[in-house]
Amino acid sequence: MRLTAELTHERTAPLAANSWESGQTPWLKIGWGVLVLAGLAAVAVIDRDTGSAPFQHLYYLPIILGGVVFGYRGGGLTSLGAMLLFHSVNNGLSQFHYTPGDMVQMFLFSAVGIVTAKLREDARRMHLLAHTDDVTGLHNLRSFEAHLNRLLRAATRNQTPITLMVLDLDNLKRLNDTYGHLVGCEAVRTVGFHLKKELPVEAVACRYGGDEFVIALPDCSPAKAVENAERIRQTVFACAPELAGHLFPSRTLTVSIGCVTVTPTLPGNLAEFGENLFRQADEALYQAKAQGKNQVFVNEANAPGSSAGFVPDLSRS
C-alpha cells in the first residue's frame, strides 16, 4: 500500500498547468518543430561547405532544442536526423569510411539528445513534486494560491463570477481510531480521486490540510456551484471504497462542503481578497457541519441577487 500518489499525466491539475510545457499549443509545437528542422538543414549546409569539426558541433543546438521541446521522442529523432545529415554531407562518410572522430561525433549526437530529454523530464517531475500534493495528486497550497490569484485577476477583468468551495471529510478521526491511519490516508486519497473525476476541467482543486480541500471554479454561477458541490457530495456518499485492503460499504465516506460565489470588482490586494473569500467559504463549511454533516451550505452574501442558504441532504432520508 502506497502512502503517496503516483505521478502521472492525468488531470492532477494538475498539476502542470503552470509549467512552461503546458503553454505549448499545437501550433506553437509545430513552430518549434519547423525551427528544429530548419536548424538541422542550416547546420548541414554549413557542414557540407566547411567539413570542419567546430562547425559540426552546431548540430548540438537543434538536438538540444528538440529534446527540450519534445522530450525523449524529439531528442531521439533529432539526434537521428543529425547523424543522417552528418553522414550524407560528408563524402567519406557516405562511402562508410569512418574515422574514430566520426564515430565519437555520432555517439555524442545520440548522447546529447538522450541527456537533454532526461534533464527535461527530470525538470518536469521536479515541477510536479513542487506543486502537487503527494497523497491525492491535487495541487498543493503553493500551487493553488498562484492559480487562485490568476483566476481572480481574470474574474475581475471579465466581470465573471468565481466560486470557492471548502470541503472536509466527515468523521475521519473515528475512521482512524477504528481502522488505523492507513485506512484514513486511503479515505483522503479516495476523496481526491472523486474530486478529479467529478470537477470540470477548468476547476483547480487543492488539499491544504489533513482532510481539508479547497476548490476554485472560474466563471461559476451560484446554481452551478451548488450543482458541482452536490455532485461531489453524492458521489463520495454513494461510493463503496476499498481502503487499505478492506472493502467498505457505501455511505462510509461523507463530506461537508461550504461554498461562496462572488463577482470581484477591483479587489486590489489579490492575496487579501483570496483570504477573505476562503474565510467565507470556511464559515459556510462550519455551517454545513453544524447542520449535521454530509451537507452543502452556500454563503453567497457577496454575489448579486443572492443570499446565504442551506442545501438539504435529500439522499439521507
**Low-confidence residue ranges:** 1-19, 302-317
Q: Identify the strand order in the major beta sheet.
A: 2-3-1-6-7-8
The structural domain count equals 2
Large-scale geometry: elongated
CA gyration radius, whole angstroms: 27 Å
**Helical run tally:** 10
Summarize the helix and strand pattern as letters.
Answer: HHHHHHEHHEEHEEEHEE
How many runs of DSSP E, i.e. beta strands?
8
Report the structural category. alpha+beta
Could you tell me the mean pLDDT? 84
- Calculate the terminal CA-CA distance, rounded to whole Å: 35 Å
| CATH second-level architecture of the largest domain | 2-Layer Sandwich
Describe this structure in words.
The longest helix has about 30 residues, at about 100-130. The protein is about 55% helix and about 10% strand. Helix 10 (about 270-290) links the parallel strand 6 (about 255-260) and strand 7. The chain has helices spanning about 25-50, 55, 60-90, 90-95, 100-130, 140-160, 170-180, 180-200, 220-240, 270-290; strands at about 160-170, 205, 210-220, 240-245, 245, 255-260, 295-300, 310. The strands form two sheets. A six-stranded mixed sheet has the order 2-3-1-6-7-8, sandwiched between helices. The chain has a two-stranded antiparallel sheet with strand order 4-5. It is elongated and about 85 Å long. Mean pLDDT is about 85; it is low at about 1-20 and about 300-315. It folds into two domains: about 20-130, no CATH class; about 140-315, Alpha-Beta Plaits (2-Layer Sandwich). The protein is built from ten helices and eight strands. With about 325 residues, it is an alpha+beta fold. Helix 1 (about 25-50) packs across helix 3 (about 60-90), helix 3 (about 60-90) runs antiparallel to helix 5 and helix 7 (about 170-180) packs across helix 8 (about 180-200).
